[in-house]
Amino acid sequence: MENVKNRYNRENLSSIVANYIKESILSGVYKEGDHILESEVAFKLGISRAPVREAIKELEKEGIVTLIPRKGTYVTKFTIEDIKEIFDIRLLLENDIINILIKEDKLNDRDFKHLEYLVKDMVNVRNSNKSDKNKAILINVKDTEFHKYLWQKSGSKRRVKILEDIFFQLRIAMLFDTNETGNLLLTATDHYDIIDNLRNKDIEMSKQSLRNHIFSYKEGRF
Predict the structure, then answer these.
(1) Is the pTM of this model over 0.90?
(2) Nearest 5°: phi and psi at 65?
(3) Across-strand partners of 72?
(4) pLDDT tens-digit map of 65-77
(5) Alpha carbon distance 133, 210 (integer Å)
(6) Residue 74 bridge partners (DSSP)
(7) How far is CA 60 from CA 18, 21, 76, 86, 139, in A?
(8) Where would I find the beta strands (DSSP E) of the chain?
(9) Domains in the chain and their CATH numbers?
(10) pLDDT in tens, 53-110
């Protein structure tokens, strides 16, 4: 019984460590290519190195960190090609979700009001006195919340599972895009077109507005 309890405690600690490292990456404490020292993380969190080691193994599976033999653990560097691939996967799955949402009439007035509230939050963040870095992070969080809400409303468990499996990589890619373009207002207000087209039950225009939001090729992003 004691062994089961110890394993459960380790698993809880490793989840805490994994979340700590993820948030440290998003906040810029760790940047791509940075060396993550097990001893340093363990010291900061006041724990042993065992759960840190377990957390790093999980993060490696998610593609968030890279383990280099005899050198250590490093934050994965996402190339432009990596980010495009992540967005390509996202676009394919979210197009399917748009089909489901409209064809099966999954969204009601309350849903649209909630989505509009999230966009309003993004615009408020953009217009706040926070630093550009904090604005980008907060808008990234709200942007992801917006799209996750639509994923969940579709009821497509397998599509949602795949999207959630690449969830953190998606957040990194979105944050990279926001930082590169610097157009936080466009990042936020793009969502109004998505809402309007979903409300009008226009599948093709909904997909187009989603594509414009994700890639915005006409803006020369990437």
Answers:
(1) no
(2) -125, 160
(3) 68
(4) 999 998 999 998 8
(5) 24
(6) 35, 66
(7) 10, 12, 9, 17, 26
(8) 35-36, 65-68, 72-75
(9) 2-75 (1.10.10.10), 80-219 (1.20.120.530)
(10) 999 999 998 888 999 998 999 998 888 788 788 888 989 999 999 999 999 999 999 9
